Amino acid sequence: xxxxxxxxRDVAFSSTPILSPRLPMWRSKLTMxxxxxxxxxxxxxxxxxxxxxxxxxxxxGDDRVVQTLVMPATRGEITDRNGVLLATSLPVRAIWADPxxxxxxxxxxxxxxxxxxxxxxxxxxxxxxxxxKGFVYVKRQVPIDVADKIKALNIPGVFExxxxxxxxxxxxxxxxxxxxxxxxxxxxxxxxxxxxKDLREVDGSRTVIHDRSGNIVxxxxxxxxxxDGKRIALSINSKIQYIAxxxxxxxxxxxxxxxxxxxxxxxxxxxVLALSNYPTYDPNDRAVLxxxxxxxxxxxxxxxxxxxxxxxxxxLALDLHRVTPDTTVVTTGRYVLDGATITDDANFGILTMGGxxxxxxxxxxxxxxxxxxxxxxxxxxSALGLGRRxxxxxxxMGTGVVxxxxxxxxxxxxxxxxxxxLSASLFQLAHAYTVFANDGRIVPLxxxxxxxxxxxxxxxxxxxxxxxVRKMLEDVVATGGTAPQAQVPGYSVGGKTGTxxxxxxxxxxxxxxxxSFVGLVPIHNPQLVIAVSVDQPQGxxxxxxxxxGPVFSQVAGGAxxxxxxxxxxxxxxxxxxxxxxxxxxxxxxxGTPEQGPG
Length: 598
Fold this sequence. Notes:
Structural class: alpha+beta
Largest sheet: 5 strands, mixed
Shape: elongated
Distance between the termini: 130 Å
Strand content: 15-25%
């Protein structure tokens, strides 16, 4: 090939046929013009959003708010042993506002209507709507029907949230035992406080977008699921609780007493079937409360029990063979020990051990105590649970006082033998008396329903000792004893009265009494231990048998029927007439003689 001559392969790149345009030139120009118009439209749109149309889009953004909502869980229920509700949670609403969402020109009529519905003054409501604030609760625990009326007012910036309010179906009958919660659903007293950890619910949460009216526009995510609290079953029997509450209230009012308390215990399982105090309160309406109403006197109040302690003194002396049931002591109405005078209500003369209990002789108890060592008595009191906190997690449990035996003087040992110089709660006394129902073995008490056998209790006295003392307790309610008013028609009963002066900072006030009675029914085969105490009854009838004996009788009789425990003794002629009249009234009312209280 000659120099300067191009070959076919020496074609310029720009003139390659493959790159030659196959479309007409006008199409290319049209495409470029379309792209130009698209970019121009985007520019105009951006100018509109940033300029003249900016207010519209700001409003739309304000109207749609991302918020984390609470998903309410429910606090655990509290029931009696048979599933009867004692505490539950009812759905209500929380009314809240975001002042930044409130319009400047809120209809004054709507404000007035809202304030009337919520029982809040318009001035307070306007204060809540202060734009300097952020989220603010207007009112919590609003009934659903009221919340619906507020929603119908359609006030921008006012919203509602689902929540729960605690409700107590039994009202004042179980108030001090169950307790109550605060507005945040946290336990403040009673079982509500003691079991708050298990009862407490855990709310869930989710993220949503809502408009200014509170309507959810979009559900974004669930952050956590709600978890309800546990259900707690108490040992309480609601029927017996009502019987005890009613009888106690009548006694306190009729004797013009300061207060009273009663506890009913299953003698073999240690389960508390009833626990009542007076005065009381309605936990559903706590607008006006006093400290006296809040006190759970059965558990928190400690006092000198008086002669209720004498059966323990005699039981210890019998157990240690210092005396026998037939051992006698001489009582003359007055007895001087180390310069201190001890008295009885009368000159009872010569008394057996049973006589000391039946007549409630302080002198007899003193002479028996002098046969015992202080350490022996202290060990017995300690084994009975006196002077130490009961093994029950409940707020405010009283421990009582039993001083170390090393510091006892003889007169102090003597007064302790008949219930002065030491203190205990009614709960502790009922606990101690379970030894007389279980052949000398003490049974731990509980306010919760047991799922199995009770834990084994310590053996305090020998079975033969307890059998002998039970017979002595039965004589207390017989004619000639200190508590015939405690008799229960158709059932054998035994127990012990206690009448003690009220201790003050200046000594004993001999015008103020604590009248108590602790007993077992049926005494021949004890099923229940019932303890009653009335503080400062007024009038001549201020003794334990006169004041607390009748309460025991009413509660024991009602409880026996409620538990379907058949009578174990025949009615006396005196008891047959009122029983026949009662049966007749039941038949007239359409019932049968066998029906007990509902």
